[in-house]
Amino acid sequence: MEHTAVSTAGPPAATGRSKPSKWKKYRSGYLFLLPATVLFILFLWVPIVKGIVFSFENVDFVKGNTFVGLDNFRTVFQDPEIGVSVKNTLYYMGLCLVIGFWVPILFAVIISEIRRFQGFVRIAAYLPNVIPLVVLYGLWRWIYDPVGPINAALQWLGLGQVLFMTDTHWSMASLVIMETWQQFGSAMLIYLAAVLSVPKDWYEAAEIDGAGIWARIRHITLPSIRNLIGLLFILQLIATSQGYQSQLAMLDGGPMNATMTYGLKIVKYAFTQQNYGVASAMGVLMFIVLGFLAVIQFRMNNREDR
């Protein structure tokens, strides 16, 4: 009886050179990324970790830090001014949405419909964004002054004087108007790029069907940039929740704590009272809230990519 011979030899030897490892293949790219990665870790993640550690300590750079557990967080929740600062921050965020959020969208749509001198209008709309903050704050202090141009115009119209900087009802809104005027240009360019990327065939077909400008904006322009509007909405919430610069430079949180935002309160605890532990605890709480908003932003990014 014949038996079929079974080969016991292993697989044929590989010929040629083996495939390079992933590290060797992308070594140049990794080396280019290394400096940016080191800087990212040193100036972003190391401060975040140290801030979390400081939130559980009594920070003393001379005698050394001591562990205090949750005492800093108890101070945060027991300080009545922090409650006021949270309310002011929410009010500030709401005003920025009501007053400032729709302005860049409006300008982007208007500029996209302009047939002539569009480049000049773009530059003019963006120009306030390049004004240095020191010049900006000095300019608007003069504009809001009781004898400034706005109050002069109100008196000429026979209306009463408005104390923009000292009236608790006007102070926060005045800062939001100033920031909207200065910052809307950058968001406007983003919206404008999205509007101009909408296929022109859609507008031409709508014009042939008899659609007017408002119908084109409502049924073509706004639906086309809907995802971008949602994304910048989340980004504005994150940015305005950290606002403190104009409140500090223009009014130092006044009048009567009317512009004392949460971010400004952190600055006060850290650099005025030099209580870095409580300031770090406030920062950790803000980090948690903003992290939640960041998750929403990432999900919206993924949805837009899909």
UniProtKB/TrEMBL annotation:
Recorded GO CC terms: plasma membrane
Primary location class: membrane
Record bears the keyword Ribonucleoprotein: no
Gene3D superfamilies hit by this protein: MetI-like
Record-annotated ABC transmembrane type-1 domain positions: 86-297
Keyword terms: Cell membrane, Membrane, Transmembrane, Transmembrane helix, Transport
SUPFAM superfamilies on file: MetI-like
Signal peptide: none
UniProt region (Disordered), positions on chain: 1-21
TM spans (from-to): 29-48, 90-111, 123-144, 156-178, 225-244, 276-296
GO terms for biological process, alphabetical: transmembrane transport
Protein's UniProt keywords contain Transmembrane helix: yes
Membrane topology (UniProt): Multi-pass membrane protein
Cellular location(s): Cell membrane
Similarity section: Belongs to the binding-protein-dependent transport system permease family.
Name this polypeptide is given: Sugar ABC transporter permease
